[in-house]
Structure formats: C-alpha cells, structure tokens
Design brief:
five-stranded mixed sheet; 433 residues; four-stranded antiparallel sheet
C-alpha cells in the first residue's frame, strides 16, 4: 500500500470518497435506528419481557419436577437455546442443551413474592442481537465501499500521474517521451494524453526542422558570401571600367539572392509562430502585383470564376500569399523554361492560384517530392544549384496555413502547372488591397 499514498490527487480523491461514505453510513444508521425505535420496542425491553414470561412459566410448574423438566425441554427445542434451571442456592435442577457460562437471559422465578430460583437461557451462535446485525451489516458495507473507493481513486489518479511524469520529462527537454494509456482510459484523460503527445511530436519536429534549416542555411550562405568576397577582390584589383561594372552586377545578383533567402526564412518563421495577418483580398490584384514584382507582363494573367462564387472577399495574409506566388514564378523561371501563364480561379469555397511553365514537366519520381523541405529539383531540365529547396515547400505551408493545399502536375500540351489554393472565409474585414 506504499504506492497508494504517493500521489496527492489520489489521496484527495480517496479522502473525499471516504468522507462521503462515512456521512452516508451515519445518516443511514441514524434513519434506521430512528424508524426502528418509533414502531418497535427496544432490545432491552424485549429481553425484559422474555425474562418475565419465562419466569412466570417456571413459577407455575416450579413444584412439579416432571412439568418443569418438560418446560425446559420445550423451550430448548422450540427456540434452539440452552436452558439451565437452578434453585436459590445455585443447585442445578434441570438442564437442556449445552452448558453456557454467560447466559443471555436470566429469568427470576418467584412464588408468593419470594425468589425461589432462576432460569438461565443461552442463545446459540445463530442468534445475534438486532443491533449487532445492523452494526455488522453497516461495518461490512462501509469496509467494502472504502476498499472500492481506494481502487477507484487509484485507477482515476494513475493516468494523471503518468501525465505529470511525461510533461515534466518534456519540459526537461526529453521530447521523445510519450504518454502510453490503454484503450479503456477515460475519454477526457485519453484526449488530454493525445493532445500532449501531439504537442510533444510537433515541438520535436519543429526543433528538428529548425536544426536542419539552420544547417542548410549556414551551408548555402557560404556560396554567395564567397562569391561576393571574390568579386570584391576582383573589383579592387581591376582598373578597367567594364570589369568593375561586371563585378558590381554580380554583387547585386548575390545580394538579391541573399535577400530572397532572408525573405523565405522570415515567411517560414511567421508560419511557424502562426502570426498571419488575415485581411480581405482581391485575388486578381494579388496575382497582378506578383507579376509586376517579377517584371512579367500582366497579359499572362487569366481569371475564371464559378457562378456560385460567394460575394464575400477571401481572407488571407497578403504578404505570405505574395511570397508563395513569387516562389511559383521563380520556380517556373529557374526550372521550367519560363512562365507561360498565371491562372486565378474562384468558387464558393476556395480561391486557387496556378503558374504554368514551358519546361519538360515533372518526372514521375519527382512529382510527389517537389513540396518537401530542402528538396532541389534536379530531375527537371534547367535545374541549378543555389537554392536550399524552401521555395515550393514554403508554398505548401502557406497554402495549408490558409486552409488550402498545393499541387503540381504536367500539362497535356507540355510543361508543368504548379499551384495552390486558400479557403474562402466568411468574416468581413478591412480590405488590404
């Protein structure tokens, strides 16, 4: 029983159960005693009446030995008791049944106002006083309920003790710790355990992704920084104007690449911490702005809508959605042979953005992996190093943060189509566009 009292919650549950059982038992005993006393004579009164009856019967046959012996046998047989009759001097006159040292009844026999003897009656083991029966039953019930409450309290508190151990382990950095409960665990406790396990898994994955991202970024930053250092040395040593101009152009491209990398990381961080600034959007204006930033003509944009499109403007974070569109456009330029079209489609539930390119499309082995973090499109024509594989992965995460999804497919006429969708919200907010 040492482990029984270890958990404070366990002890508190057991204490409340015990108090409830005790109060219930006392209340029941009081009511039973009150009801019994109101309608029936007390045990002592019954004993006194029995003693008076037996004494009067023996007084009638006291001087008749045969009749006295017959009465003794009759009492012993009919009431299953042991009866011993003695005279005033203590001599045994007659006996029926076992010898009893501590009689339950002592009936005084009197004739003509004088005491002449005594009839001692001993009840056998089957006879128990009414009050004793009630007390025994009450104690038995209380004991059973007390033990049952101990078991119930232990079973109720055991999952919480495991929850405390696992959450403490997670707080200490052991993120691989998980709560293991059987399938019969209470619904709320099981739901809490599932939530804690999911939280630990997400934290573990987030930290692993951050470590992987940090390693990848540290590696990728060395390339443009190394290029910039070399270009600066060339520009410092060269005297020709044309050479300097070329170095500065290369420096500008490297700086832009670093700037794009920082933008990707900032967007990823905003999604990680769920810091989206949701406002009403105009999808076509959003796509037009993305084309303008990429120095692409607005004539590439096409728009389609369902006849049942909601009148409410879709909701979303314009900055993140522009980043997703920029990544699609950059992917088409770098890996797809250039952008051939940008499509915006709306229906009652969703808004989708798609970018089409003129490349060879996706290889079968590649199509399911293009949205994975740190994946580089080496299977497509024109693929080049220099990115860390966050572009399409970030598109997928931005879409999922807006209740949508991302997809990539090959077009029948050639080239690829990569897009994403966002869910349409119903709340009206101030327009951002």
């Amino acid at each position: 029983m040492g482990r029984f009292f270890l958990g404070r919650l366990h002890r508190r549950i057991f204490a409340w159960f015990s108090a409830s059982i005790l109060v219930s038992a006392l209340t029941a005993a009081t009511l039973v005693w009150a009801l019994a006393s109101a309608d029936h004579p007390t045990w002592r009164e019954q004993i006194e009446r029995g003693e008076a009856f037996i004494g009067s019967r023996y007084a009638e046959v006291w001087t008749q030995p045969d009749a006295r012996d017959a009465l003794t046998r009759e009492l012993a047989e009919n009431f299953a008791v042991a009866v011993t009759v003695r005279d005033e001097g203590g001599r045994v006159l007659t006996r029926a049944g076992e010898v009893c040292a501590r009689p339950d009844l002592r009936a005084s026999v009197e004739r003509e106002g004088a005491r002449v003897g005594e009839a001692a009656v001993c009840m056998r083991h089957g006879h128990v006083r009414g009050g004793g029966v009630l007390l025994l039953a009450l104690l038995s019930a209380v004991s059973i309920l007390w033990l049952a409450s101990a078991v119930i309290a232990y079973r109720l508190a055991r999952p919480f003790a495991q929850l405390v151990r696992v959450t403490r382990a997670i707080g200490e950095g052991r993120l691989g710790s998980r709560i293991q409960l059987n399938r019969r665990a209470p619904g709320e406790v099981g739901l809490l355990a599932e939530t804690v396990n999911d939280m630990a898994a997400r934290i573990e994955k987030q930290l692993a992704d951050q470590r992987e991202l940090l390693a990848a970024v540290s590696h990728e930053l060395r390339t443009p920084l190394g290029h910039m250092r070399v270009l600066l040395e060339i520009g410092r040593d060269a005297d020709e104007v044309g050479v300097n101009a070329g170095c500065f152009d290369e420096l500008e491209r490297e700086v832009l690449e670093l700037d794009g990398l920082v933008d990707q990381l900032l967007a990823s961080s905003r999604i990680e911490f769920d810091s989206l600034d949701r406002r009403a959007l105009e999808p076509t204006a959003l796509a037009r702005r993305a084309l303008e930033r990429a120095s692409l003509p607005a004539s590439l944009l096409s728009y389609g809508t369902d006849t049942e499109t909601s009148a409410d403007a879709p909701q979303g974070d314009a900055t993140l959605l522009l980043r997703a569109l920029a990544n699609l456009l950059q992917n088409a330029r770098a890996h797809g042979g250039g952008v051939t079209g940008v499509r915006v489609r709306e229906d009652a539930a969703r808004v989708s953005f798609e970018v089409e390119d003129a490349g060879p499309g996706f290889a079968d082995a590649e199509r399911g992996r293009v949205f994975s973090s740190f994946y580089r499109g080496d299977h497509r024509a024109g693929a080049r190093h220099g990115s860390i594989g966050l572009g399409l992965s970030l598109v997928r995460r931005i879409a999922e943060a807006h209740g949508g999804e991302a997809w990539a497919e090959n077009r029948p006429e050639g080239g690829a189509r990569v897009g994403f969708s966002i869910a349409r919200a119903s709340e009206e907010v101030e327009k951002d566009m």
